[in-house]
Amino acid sequence: MSGFHARGLVYIGARDYMIEHVPGGVDAVAAALPPDLRAFMRQIFLANTMYDVLPIVTISEVAATLIGVSHAEYLRPNAAWQAQRDIRGVYKLLFNLMSAEAVALRLGKAAMRYFDFGEASSVMRTPTSCNAEQRGIPKPAAWFTACVHGFVPVALTMAGAKNVRLRTLATTSDGERYGVETVTVSIEFSWDERRTLVESWFPGERP
Asked: Do 182 and 139 contact (CB within 8 A), yes or no?
């Protein structure tokens, strides 16, 4: 165990995405894993229980290989898919009917709800751009940045933003925990002027 954990939601989402997008689904991915990770992947995950986060790196790399894309090319649509599901589901009340600006400022801390490590802060630079920092991320979990690039555009678009753009500003070492180097990831979100709420993706929730 690494000491860094993610909620079972992360693994449940990963497994469900594999069922829809990887030939052979979870069984194909599990069969391609080392024996210890194979057993880990086949267990029953509970949504709010914490599990070691680092296996998801190898698991998602194997899934990417099976469909013939890079790790980042696999992670971004996986994260976008999970964003659409979670924001309409477990995190609906967190984001519903909020402005793009409010969502941008809240996204970093919302992301940390999936994990038991890391800190987040965000600041608006202009009315349509925000700089976010995620600190204390285990360096082996390089998938984190790709997931942000998949999750954030969906969340902001659902809040009314148009033409969402992300740019990773820096990834810098910020210390060590459990014998693992940790990093700070700095990312800029920007978008065009938001649509009105009546054009949002929550037609059943309009005022």
From this structure: yes
User: Six-digit token pair at 143?
Assistant: 């998938």
- Give SS3 for 137: strand
**Could you give the domains of the chain?**
5-71 (no CATH), 83-200 (3.90.1520.10)
* Cα three-residue angle 134-104-145, rounded to 5 degrees: 35
Tokens of 157: 């678009």
In 3-state terms, what secondary structure has residue 119?
Answer: strand
Per-residue pLDDT of the chain in tens (207 residues, 90 and over written 9): 789 999 999 999 999 999 999 999 999 999 999 998 999 999 999 999 999 999 999 999 999 999 999 999 999 999 999 888 877 765 555 556 578 898 899 888 888 888 999 999 999 999 999 999 999 999 887 678 888 999 999 989 888 899 999 999 999 999 999 999 999 999 999 999 755 444 444 444 444
